[in-house]
Structure formats: C-alpha cells, structure tokens
Amino acid sequence: MFHVVLHQPEIPPNTGAVGRTCVALGADLWLVRPLGFRIDEKTRRRAGLDYWRHLNWRVVDNWEELNGAARACSATLPRFWMFTKTAETSLFSVQFQAGDWLVFGSETSGLPPSLLEQPSRNVRIPVSGEVRSLNLSNAVAVAGYEAARQIGVFDTTGR
User: Fold this and answer.
1) pLDDT tens sequence across 19-28
2) Is the sign of the CA dihedral 142, 111, 43, 47 positive or negative?
3) pTM
4) 129 to 49, 79, 132, 133: CA distances (angstroms)
5) Judging by beta carbons within 10 Å of its beta carbon (0-12, 13-18, 19+), is residue 22 exposed, middle or buried?
6) Can you point out the beta strands (E) in 84-138?
C-alpha cells in the first residue's frame, strides 16, 4: 500500500516499534544506512521481534540506492513525503496515495537538508504546547495511520 523509510535510525526500540506498526498497516519498511544498531537475525530474536517475519523490509546503503529502488517499485515517479518539524505543510493537508513513501529522519538530527529541498513534499505533524516533536515511532504511527485511512487500507469496521 505504501512505504515507510527510516533514514539513518539510531535507537533500536524505535525501529522495532516502527516495524510492528508497518506489519499492522501492511506497509513496507526501508532502512537507510548507517544504522545505529545491528539488525541481524540473532539480534532481532534477542529483542523479541518475532513479528518481523511478517514484515516486508529492506536495508539500503544510501539515499541514492533507496531512490533507485523506489523508481523500480513504481510505475510512475515515486512520491516521497519528508517528515520534519520545520515543514509548513501539515500532515492533515496532504492527500496520500497508494505507493507513497513516508520518510523519517534519525532521532537526534532528523532528515538532512539535502532531502528537504522540495518544500512542497515536506510534512509536519502538528503538536501543541511545549513539545518540539514526537518520538520517531509515534510519528510513524500517526502518519502511517493517516495515510492508511486516506488510502482505504481498512474498511469502515477497522479491518
């Protein structure tokens, strides 16, 4: 239905939670190196990530490799939505489509400026009060479920 991309994630539990969310949504997960942790089978098993056997996921070495894979997956140019707290466009103003790519940066530094060069594709999740941003796994869940709702992943009963 759509793809979730974590660009250089650093914290293993966040990535584990994102993987679980992707399984729940039927979304593919892409991880762009470098990763701040190991993700081999032994490490996943030790972390209790047994649901990862149901996850369609892939690790790529860099943004260029991801971009090439995205073009190979799409009949048209892939639509990347870059999630950043500095974006002008709210998540709730975006019209998601099947096949979209939701891109999230690392926990400590977000996405690099080179990936934020198209402001029309930069998206923020509105927050109020003293909170600067959401935890990475929470941000993916909020954005992923909004995209799934718009695309019609679940029927009206939530299945």
Assistant:
1) 999 999 999 9
2) negative
3) 0.93
4) 34, 31, 8, 10
5) buried
6) 89-90, 101-104, 122-124
